[in-house]
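Sequence in, structure out.
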Amino acid sequence: MKRLVRNARTGKFFSSKGRWTKHIDRALDFPHVMNVVHTCLLHGLRDVELVLHFGNKTKTVPLKCR
């Protein structure tokens, strides 16, 4: 399972370079959900979603970071 951050408006994923990418294979895979929260707060990310990616299946969870 991969834990990814996606911009809810653009559909792009957060990459390890701190930029946004439309390619899921270039998205940053977070080791733990708390790393997702920390990164969102650190970078001031708003209107993002936590995407749990299981190979060809995904589960999207809205993530509110303030």
